[in-house]
Amino acid sequence: MSVSHDAGKTWTYSATPFPSVSWAQRPVLRMLREGALMAVSFTPPAPFVDADGHTFMSAGKAALFVALSKDGGKTWPVMKLLTDGKPRKITTPTGEHSAVIDATHTEDHGYMSAAQTPDGMIHLISSGLYYRFNYAWINEPNR
User: How far is CA 34 from CA 15, 102, 118, 120, in A?
Assistant: First the structure.
């Protein structure tokens, strides 16, 4: 993480809790209308907490997740897999990439971009796959 408190004249650097991204992955960092900083990125298999407070591991080569910070990126208390949990195969419009997703598997790579519309919905595109969710959904526990 790189932070400047003097309009970019000097910078301080520190590690974040997120893993580095690899080839075919581009994360998103965006300030939301609600005042929280949202990060969307990929992680190798990692622990997440479900609605019952149990820890489970994401599965597959990498997992797409969304995280929230309410203190400018110092802490990230909300981390959620970006999946609705419904088992199915997803394929990009070009057919070049497909993945089987469920409660623990997500898309494993993509170049992402996101926007939040005036109605509060967050629209995320990842190499042709489209996600739509809101701030309240991010704050719900993993299923």
Answer: 25, 29, 11, 9
| DSSP secondary structure string for all residues of 34-103 | TS-EEEEEEESS-EEEBTTS-EEE--SS-EEEEEEESSTTS---EEEES-----EEEE-TTSS-EEEESS
Range of the domain at 76: 18-139
> Is 30 a member of any domain?
yes
Task: Write the pLDDT tens digit of every residue in 21-62.
Answer: 777 788 999 999 999 999 999 999 999 998 899 999 999 888
Could you write out the DSSP letters of every residue in 97-138? Answer: -EEEESSS-----EEEEEEE-TTSEEEEEETTEEEEEEHHHH
> What global pTM score does this model have?
0.88
Q: Does a structural domain hold residue 13?
A: no
> pLDDT of 89-99, one tens digit each?
988 777 777 78
